[in-house]
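Possible regression after last week's pipeline update?

I re-ran a chain I had predicted before the update to compare outputs. Posting the input and the new output here so someone can diff against the archived version. Not blocking, just want to make sure nothing changed silently.
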Amino acid sequence: MSTGLSVLGFDVGQRRIGVAVGQSVSGTASPVTVLTRTGPDFDWPRIDALVADWGPQAFVLGWPTLADGGIHPLAADIDALAAGLTARYRLPVHRIDERLSTHAAAAHPLHARRRPRPGRRTHVDDLAAQLIVESWLRGLPRR
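New output (post-update):
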């Protein structure tokens, strides 16, 4: 019996990185957390803990594209995360077009049910990562 493929997905932003976990058996994903960025580096201790907790066999990164075909300002950050994931964990890293995933996440019913703490906003980054992973899983060949 096949257990399928488990993946961790990332929606990389300038200030936050949404993380989701998905698996190929059901073709579904779930939001996990939002990592805060304090500069160009990544929170490798938290990413290490996520990898240890979820045991993925691959990573999926959202790859934003511009309407005019130009290079997105986050491309270098996404490439850096992909290189770091490859070097640290020796697992495949897949990129998928994630155009408008944040807008779709903001309209997602799960986001509507979230309640912000007083004086704080709710973030959609982990939901955007969920949509990225689910989109990638839909593209996998079915047995």
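Follow-up from reviewer: compared with the archived run. Strands lie at 6-12, 16-23, 28-36, 58-63, 93-97. Marking as no regression found.
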